[in-house]
Each structure stands twice: as structure tokens, then as C-alpha cells.
């Protein structure tokens, strides 16, 4: 049983010189629980951004900031199904 979830991450990256070319490496991983899911992703360079649910940036429960660790190249966003207008759907994978 898989959960079909739509989560959009937007990364804002800036330095004094301008934008940094950073990208997600590989596929993000999704961990599903009975009442939550977590999206984890790795980036090419140190992550200095925000991951959030589309249209819910103003809600602190629907976003995550980069870690204070200056060398972190990964981040995650963990949400419960009662947050951020998340819809839980059951589906069957066909391989």
C-alpha cells in the first residue's frame, strides 16, 4: 500500500554574490507512518534554504529551514496528515 502525496520543495539560496547553483541529488525518499510522512532529500552543496508545502509557507508547521550545521547537504520535512491540507490516499503500486 502506498500513499500518494504531493509535496513541493522550493529552495531559496542566496549569497552576497547572488544565487547558488544547488540541486537535489537522486530521488527524495518518503517515509510513511500511520499519521505522518517525511520527505528527505540530499543536495549537491550545503543546503541553505526552506522546504515547504506549496501554498503553506506562512504556516510554521508546514515548512522547515536548513539546519544550523554549515556543512549539511540534506534536509527533511515531516508532516502529520492533519496539517497543511495534506490528503491521505491509499493506492496500489503496479510494477
Structural account:
By secondary structure, the protein is mostly beta strands. It has one domain. A three-stranded antiparallel sheet has the order 2-3-6, with no helix packed on it. A hairpin with a 3-residue loop joins strand 2 and strand 3. The chain is globular and about 35 Å long. The two termini are 13 Å apart.
Strand order of the largest sheet: 2-3-6
What is the CA-CA span between the terminal residues? 13 Å
Rg over alpha carbons: 14 Å
Number of helices: 0
Order of helices and strands: EEEEEEE
Number of strands: 7
Task: Kindly report the average pLDDT value.
Answer: 72
Could you say how many structural domains there are in total?
1
User: Looking at the structure, what is the overall shape?
Assistant: globular
Instruction: Give the helix level as a range of percent.
Output: under 10%
How would you sum up the major sheet? 3 strands, antiparallel
Strand content: 35-45%
Q: From the helix content, strand content and strand pairing, which structural class follows?
A: mainly beta
> Regions with pLDDT < 50 over 5+ consecutive residues?
1-17
Signal peptide: 1-18
Keywords: Cuticle, Signal
Pfam family, one: CUT_N
Protein name: ZP domain-containing protein
